[in-house]
Design a protein that fits this description.
302 residues, mainly alpha, DNA polymerase, domain 1, hpI Integrase, Chain A, 2 domains, three-stranded antiparallel sheet, two-stranded antiparallel sheet, 5 strands
């Protein structure tokens, strides 16, 4: 079935099931076409995109297309209703938008979280318990290496080169990339691993024989994306940040910090594992916006 046919069927569905007007349906279909065009640049489709892809799309419409808040909310609602349609039609079983909330009008969708805010989140996490070390380690690997949420959840010890200090990540389409890691990331990872193994040896948590780094000590199984989403949300609330912040927000901050400090777009594209430069270019808009704000705040003739 072609994309045009699916969108035609979707239009009939939202008219009949949701009672939407022709004008609203046409607007939703237009937003969905924009969304699908964006997905094609990431080598994914509506049948296999993830929440990371959707959050990247939101950053794209805000930063590059310069959509107003009302238009961005329409985009969210369009994709949300489209997911319901796909599930009704049996074209998709999961719902990557189940944890994505629609912002209230007048509440700006966050583009990026500042370095100071991330440092505040890290400072709130101690290094005494396994939970603290694990959460600190997760945060460091997303913000410090720009990993996708799926990549950090599937991180395994055989991907880590301790001597050269880089990760070998297999991203979308089984495309491999190498990402540097810092001394701090290695330090916290070693503390976390030592604590984990000690608790296993003492039989306080179930033994895990796999190679993946982040596991649930209660079940002995790998953590889920849902866990990551909820824990980042909990950390954000703990330090008093009232905006929506996700794993992709931290990944976005990683790229923006690199750009602000002189990294070229090609290098950022390789570190993030973007298949298309178009996706990477959204970060130039964030940097330009920040530059204008600094200029207006500090320049005597601004």
């Amino acid at each position: 079935m072609t994309v045009d046919k699916i969108l035609d069927n979707y239009g009939s569905y939202v008219r009949g099931e949701l009672g939407l007007s022709d004008a609203t349906v046409n607007t939703y279909v237009y937003q969905l076409k924009t969304f699908m065009h964006f997905l094609s640049g990431r080598n994914v489709t509506f049948t296999d995109f993830t929440v990371d892809d959707f959050e990247a799309f939101l950053a794209y419409v805000v930063d590059e297309l310069r959509h107003k808040e009302t238009t961005t909310v329409i985009s969210i609602n369009a994709v949300r209703s489209f997911m319901k349609f796909l599930r009704v039609e049996g074209l998709r079983k999961d719902n990557p938008l189940e944890n994505v909330s629609t912002p209230k009008l007048g509440q700006r969708i966050p583009k990026v979280i500042s370095h100071q805010e991330v440092m505040k989140m890290l400072h709130e996490l101690g290094e005494n318990t396994l939970d603290e070390l694990r959460d600190k380690c997760i945060l460091l690997f997303i913000y410090g290496s720009g990993l996708r949420s799926s990549e950090v959840m599937n991180l395994s010890y055989d991907m880590i080169n301790y001597e050269s200090q880089f990760l070998k990540i297999k991203g979308k389409g089984s495309k491999e990339r190498q990402v540097p890691v810092s001394d701090e990331q290695i330090r916290v990872l070693n503390l976390y691993t030592s604590k984990l193994r000690a608790l296993m040896a003492e039989k306080q948590i179930p033994e895990y024989r796999g190679t993946q780094v982040f596991i649930n000590p209660k079940t002995g199984r790998v953590f889920t994306r849902q866990y990551l989403f909820l824990h980042i949300k909990k950390l954000v609330r703990k330090v008093g940040i009232v905006r929506n912040v996700s794993a992709h927000t931290l990944r976005h901050a990683f790229a923006t910090e690199l750009l602000d400090n002189g990294a070229d777009l090609k290098s950022i594209q390789e570190l993030l594992g973007h298949s298309s430069m178009t996706t990477t270019e959204i970060y130039t808009h964030v940097a330009k916006s920040r530059m204008h704000k600094i200029y207006e705040k500090t320049h005597p003739r601004s």
